[in-house]
Amino acid sequence: MSTDLNTLRQLAHLSRLEFNEGNEQKMLADLNEILNWVDQLNNLDTSHVEPLVHLSYELNVMRPDEPRNTVSHAEGLKNAPRKDSDYFRVPKVLE
C-alpha cells in the first residue's frame, strides 16, 4: 500500500498542515512506511485470539458517593498564598 503526493497534499489540507518541498517528500516516505506497517498487521492471523473487552480483569471497588465536607472553609483558606476575606485571590485570566 502506498500513497502518492496528491493524496498527501489533500491530507495536509484537511489537517491544516503545510510542508515545503523537502519536508513533503520526507513526510510522504514516512506515511508510506506507516501504512506498510499497518498493512503487515492486517495480514496477521487473529482467528484464535479472543476479542479484548477490558485491558485488565481487575474490578474497581466502588464506594458509595456521599457528599461531605472534609475541610472547613477556614482550613481551606489557611494555606492560600493570597486571600480576600472569604475567597482565594488569583491572577486575572480574562480581560
UniProtKB/TrEMBL annotation:
InterPro entries, per the entry: Asp/Glu-ADT_sf_sub_c, GatC
GO BP terms in the entry: glutaminyl-tRNAGln biosynthesis via transamidation; regulation of translational fidelity; translation
EC assignment: 6.3.5.-
Keywords, in A-Z order: ATP-binding, Ligase, Nucleotide-binding, Protein biosynthesis, Transferase
Reaction catalysis annotation: L-glutamyl-tRNA(Gln) + L-glutamine + ATP + H2O = L-glutaminyl-tRNA(Gln) + L-glutamate + ADP + phosphate + H(+); L-aspartyl-tRNA(Asn) + L-glutamine + ATP + H2O = L-asparaginyl-tRNA(Asn) + L-glutamate + ADP + phosphate + 2 H(+)
Recorded GO MF terms: asparaginyl-tRNA synthase (glutamine-hydrolyzing) activity; ATP binding; glutaminyl-tRNA synthase (glutamine-hydrolyzing) activity; transferase activity
Similarity section: Belongs to the GatC family.
Function recorded in the entry: Allows the formation of correctly charged Asn-tRNA(Asn) or Gln-tRNA(Gln) through the transamidation of misacylated Asp-tRNA(Asn) or Glu-tRNA(Gln) in organisms which lack either or both of asparaginyl-tRNA or glutaminyl-tRNA synthetases. The reaction takes place in the presence of glutamine and ATP through an activated phospho-Asp-tRNA(Asn) or phospho-Glu-tRNA(Gln).
Subunit architecture: Heterotrimer of A, B and C subunits.
The protein, known as: Aspartyl/glutamyl-tRNA(Asn/Gln) amidotransferase subunit C
